[in-house]
Write a structure and sequence with these properties.
Number of helices: 6
Distance between the termini: 41 Å
Largest sheet: 10 strands, antiparallel
Order of helices and strands: HHEEEEEEEEEEEEHHHH
Strand content: 25-35%
Strand order of the largest sheet: 4-3-2-1-5-6-7-8-11-12
Structural class: alpha+beta
Shape: globular
Helix content: 25-40%
Number of strands: 12
């Protein structure tokens, strides 16, 4: 905690010399100041680097992998142990529900697993993910870990649990003295969706689930499904996002 205390004291003192005119510039200056401080004291010395080393447990021969968006690191932000961090190299192992941070300095070839209980949220690929269990006693028992959060209105939020089904692939090749068996892992996306509507959480996986939540829009929901069959098959995530967005547009303004 010493580094965090030093950071807070430094920011308070240095902030006295900042001339901030708008909320937007205040947010921008705060992020820049945190980045400058982290670079100055050395990110490897911060408590952000207190997790275990990341190990990729899978062997894949094709382009599939167990990570969200990419198996390479991407720039993202996060809130960890009550502190905001910006412009970090992150990737998300969705099958093990682990956020991986690329180490800095001479150990930049290592990945570090961030402790889930200390992580409130993170961003990747311009998407926000929250730890649904972090200071949220109202979350249902079946929800656990990181969910992508898409807020359509104050009463309408979609949560996406990114997941991939893992399949073991056996490659059997005959050789001179017998059979050599090599196995690899193949991953295919299979997400889960939860809608929070008026402070209640609903699992949604079918048309009937949506209609049960919004019976007054039954005809509009059926029309959407019938008009977007190909999209549902090719990209279920976008299909669900667009559906909730359309339903949200039908709800009277006083309810939103």
């Amino acid at each position: 905690m010493k580094n965090y205390q030093n950071k807070s004291i430094f920011l308070i003192l240095f902030g006295l010399f900042l001339n901030i005119y708008t909320i937007h510039s205040q947010t921008s200056n705060t992020a820049s100041l945190y980045n400058w401080f982290d670079k100055t004291v050395g990110k490897q010395n911060l408590e952000l680097y207190n997790g275990p080393r990341h190990v990729n447990l899978y062997r894949t021969l094709d382009k599939s992998h167990s990570y969200y968006f990419s198996n390479n690191y991407s720039t993202g932000d996060l809130k960890y142990q009550g502190q905001n961090y910006y412009n970090l190299d992150l990737k998300y192992d969705i099958n093990n529900d682990i956020i991986v941070l690329k180490a800095n300095g001479e150990y930049d070839y290592l990945g570090i697993n961030l402790i889930k209980e200390e992580t409130a949220w993170f961003t990747l690929n311009n998407k926000k993910f929250i730890n649904i269990n972090f200071n949220n006693p109202s979350s249902p028992a079946y929800m656990n870990g990181y969910y992508q959060e898409i807020i359509f209105s104050k009463n309408n939020t979609l949560y996406i649990k990114h997941h991939k089904n893992r399949t073991k692939v056996i490659d059997t090749r005959a050789i001179s003295d017998g059979t050599n068996q090599n196995s690899s892992d193949e991953f295919k996306e299979k997400n889960e969706y939860v809608l929070k509507y008026k402070d209640a959480y609903y699992k949604i996986s079918s048309r009937s689930d949506i209609i049960e939540i919004f019976p007054q829009y039954k005809s509009e929901i059926k029309k959407y499904y019938n008009s977007n069959i190909q999209l549902e098959e090719s990209d279920k995530k976008v299909f669900i996002e667009n559906l909730i967005k359309e339903i949200n547009s039908l709800i009277p303004n006083e309810v939103n």
